[in-house]
Every structure is written in structure tokens, then in C-alpha cells.
Write a structure and sequence with these properties.
- This protein is α+β, with helices and mostly antiparallel strands.
- It folds into 5 domains: 134 residues, Immunoglobulin-like (Sandwich), CATH 2.60.40; 102 residues; 139 residues; 92 residues, SH3 type barrels, CATH 2.30.30; 92 residues, SH3 type barrels (Roll).
- It has 6 helices and 37 strands.
- The strands form 8 sheets. Strands 1, 2, 5, 9, 10 and 11 form a 6-stranded mixed β-sheet that branches. A 6-stranded antiparallel β-sheet has the order 19-20-13-12-21-22, with no helix packed on it.
- The radius of gyration is 59 Å and the shape is elongated.
Length: 607
Amino acid sequence: MMKCKSLLLLMSLAVASYSAQIKDVRFVCDASGCQTVFAFASDKDLPSFYQKFNASAKKLTVGFSGTSFALGEGDFDVDADSKFIKSVRVVKDTYKGTAFLKFEMTVGSSITTDKNEIGLDRSNFLIKFKNKGGKSWTLSKLFADRKKQADKLALEEKKAAEQKAIEDKKAAEKAALEEKKRLAAEKKAAEKKALEEKKVAEKAALEEKKRLAEEKKAAEKAAREQEKLLAEQQKQLDKAINEGGKISALLPNLKEMTVLMGSGMEQFRLVAESPIDIRNVSGPDKNNTLTVGLAGPQRSPLFRIGSGSLVKSVTWGANGLKIQLKTAVKPVMLVQDGVLVLQVAEDAINKDGLISWCARPDGIFIRDWMRAVEEKPDFDVFVKRLEKESKKIISGSQTFHLRPVLRELIVVADEIEFYAAPNENSQVLQRLVFGDRLVSLDLTGLYRKVQYGNRVGYVNRRSVGFYDELTSVQAERLKQVDLDRGTNLAVNAGAITSQLDGLYEDKVTYSSFGRRDPFVEVKGLVEEGININQVELVGIIWESDVPMAILVDTKNPSISYTLKEDDKILNGKVLKITQTDVLFLIQEFGVSRRYTMGLPDKFGGQK
């Protein structure tokens, strides 16, 4: 507080109308002690001053009012290792309208206070310190020496930079010249290489042209010879067919071709020398031609089938054996080892017996075992007639089996376990999701034995169902799932059943999509059993072994009913119970229909 008062007192004595100038600052040490000398330009109109020490920053500040400094403002380094003054910073400051010139001196351990003795020797203002042993200096001289050194250093750096620039320029010019030479050499080498490659390519193209010309010439010659050979073979074959000769009538790589007609069927049988794979049989294409992928000649004569309404001709092509079917024929096909059998229904021959047309390597044979419907020869007559031609009987019987198609099961729960055994504690083979298809194999209590891919396991039978057991909600969801998966199974799922179903059931079936059929009258129905048009579904018991549906009377909610799957209702039964819906099968007036009743949601509508 006393320091501040002294400072304000000194500042109030300053005379602002005159300006003093400090020419230089010196630090002088002798036997009597050390002092800082501020050399003013004149001993007249000396300014007021103050000194202030900051112990934490180790700074002694001396200020002069209305004063300028000949060396100007800035930082002046003195001696970083000095115990007195290490550096000086000269700045101007204004306090209460009075301009001050401040010398902020960073000091060492020998200066510890601002109560230093001051003195005036003419125009020199002195600040004396108690300690001794300092090194004398003059700020202007230090400034001049350092400025000279700095200028010298700057000049040397400038010369060095100019010399470096000259050297860099020479190096860059030399590098550019070398790069130019390198690029020229690379360009020359690339042009030489391109020329050589062009010559090689032209030579190769010429050789390829010659080779292709020779191959074309050879192919044309072979084609002419092949056509000539085929024409001769065809001529001989046509002659043999017309004259009934005993030449080889078959195409290469074939053992036998047989046509068998009668008793309501027509069969074409082809026996090849190598096995036939059903996967290598394709067609019929737009020309009604089957292609059998067999190894054989690229071309052959056209073998015309002289009997029947099934096969028109047979010939060898580039992709195998080609069988030309007659118009609008769609035969059943059987492949076994080296035998291919095509069969269709035939009703043009209204006689009992068979007509056989057979082509073998030793000739073509035709036999007719037909007899008139009214003809009833005894067994002895039949045997006697057969014995005459028994050596030429063709043995070629094939058996066709009609197999029912396995029905698919569909996962109707969001997610289920696929168990290794019919037990929920058994190993889980996989997790299945809604819409997955399974093959039904067997029923074991609460579990169905099914096949999924190449695995056989068990699933809870309440979590799966056949397509015709799906509710309308499940059917619509299944369509969407199949659409998302990129399949279209749900659309045709109704056809996944035995092909004989249509022979045993002549009913009209349709889905009511959760609404009552408007074409069926309520009046006149037999009043026996629950009428589903007068009840609503309020709950489903799903956790028990047997799922149950709880229904209440719409007019009298105090009356409730509990139904299980296969329970009888008015004109029908309960077909399926899921976690959210009940599917009923209703039969009224000779018409079968399915009706779905769903649980209400929290807003009272259907889920």
C-alpha cells in the first residue's frame, strides 16, 4: 500500500509540458558497488520516476514520465547468467493521462527490492545496488554489436541462400536435362518395341489367316464327303425300308428302337449303347424336339419312324441324339440305364392286342397281334398262331407306377425348434421360422416326424400345418413371406397333393376370408351344435398339450363354449387352432368352405 502511495505521489509531480530523452543505459560496477545509469540528453527538465519490484516475476520496473528513449522500444538481451540485470524491455504506458517510459528489467538474485538508492550526477540518473561483483555493460554498445552481428549473420545467410539458389538451379537444370534424355531414350525404346510387336502380330495374324483358310478348306471337304456319305446312307436306308431288306437300319451307338401300340397306350422305346442320365434329357423345345445328351457323331442320316403317332424321326446332332416328336404330343418319360421310354395314352385303335414296330441292327420288323373285338379264339388257336412267329417276338415290357405326391407342412409359428427326437429336452438341430417348408413323414403324439432339407427330426405338431389348414391371415402372410424370399410357393401350394385327389372328391371349396358367407341363409339351419355365426372368439388356451378355443354367445356373454380341434359344430367341425385364430370347416348345401375367427386386438378389432 505504501508503494502505491509513493508511486501516485511521484506521478502527480510529473510535468507533462516538457519531454526528456534518455540517450543510453549503462550498468557500472567498481569497488564501491554496482549501479544502473540512465544517461539523459540534458540535465534540464528531468522527469519524475518510480521504481517497482515484482518478487514473483523477478522484475524491477523503472518508469519515467514524459520521456523517450534514443534506442526506441523493444526487448534488449543483456546477460542471461547475470546476478543483476539479465534483460531489459522498454515500453511506453499511460496512466491517468500521463505518458510513462518503462524499463522492465528481468533481474537476478542480487536485486531483491525497489527501495534501491537513487542519485543524480548532472544528466545521469543513478539507481544504486548494495551488492557487488557485476559485469559492466552499455546498452547502446550491446545493441550496436548485436545489430552488427545480426546484420553480418543476415548477410551471410543471404549469400548462402543466393549460393544455394544458384546451386539448386544448376542441379535442377542438370536433372531436367537428364530426365529429358531418359524420356527420349524410353520413347525410342517404346517405339522400337511397338514396331517389333506390330511385326510379330502381323506375322501371327498372317499365320492364323492361313491356318483358318486351311481349316475351312478341310472342313468344307469333310462336309462334302459327309454329305455324300449321309446321302448314300439315307438312300440305302430308304431302299431298305421300302424293300424290307435286312441291312443295318439303326443309327450309330443305338441297339434298338421299338414302337408298341394298343390296349389304350402307345410306347416308344430306345436302347443306347451307353447309359442315359435323366438330367441330360432336355426339351421338348419350340420345335417339339427332345435332346438326349449322349456321345455320338456330330451328324447322321434322319431316321424316320414308320409307325405310331408319338415320334416322328431320330437323328444325331451336335448336342447329342435328337428325337423329333409329332405335333402336340406330351409323353410320360422313363429313363433306366441305357433305355429311354416315352409313353402316351392311345384311343385310336379300338381293338385288343398290340402292334409292334422294331428297328434292330439286323433289320426292321413289324408284328401285329391285334384281333377283332368280336373274335374270341380259344387258347390252342392262339398258341398255334403265336408259335409260327415266336422267333421274332420282341421282348420290351416296362412297368409304370403312379406314386402319390408327399404333402408339405408349413411352419405357422414365428419360430420353432427342430428336435433330434420327439422330446423338447432333446438336441435342437436347428431353429425354423414362419413359412419354412417341411415334408411330413409320421405323427408321434404331440410331435410330427418331418424332413427339412437333408435332415430328419421332430417338430411340435401345433406349430405346423398343411396349406389347406391355414387361416386366411396365415395364407396372406405366407404369400408375403414367399414374395420377400423371391419364391412363389404359396400361390401353387394348394396343388401339392396326390394327382388322384380330383377323382375322389367332387366338391366346391373356397375361403370366406374371415367373413360370413352372404350366400348361405341363416334361417332353416338345424339347431344342433354351436352356430359360429352367433358366437365370438374371446380366448385361446395354448400352453396345454391340446389347444382349446373359448367362445361366448354374442347375445348372452354369460354363455361360453370350449372347443378343441376336430370338435363338431353346426354343419362342420374345428379344423385348426393357432395362437391367434380358429379355422372352421363348414359344409352347407353340398358346399364346403373355410371360416376363420381371430382374437380381437386391444382396440376391439381383429388382429
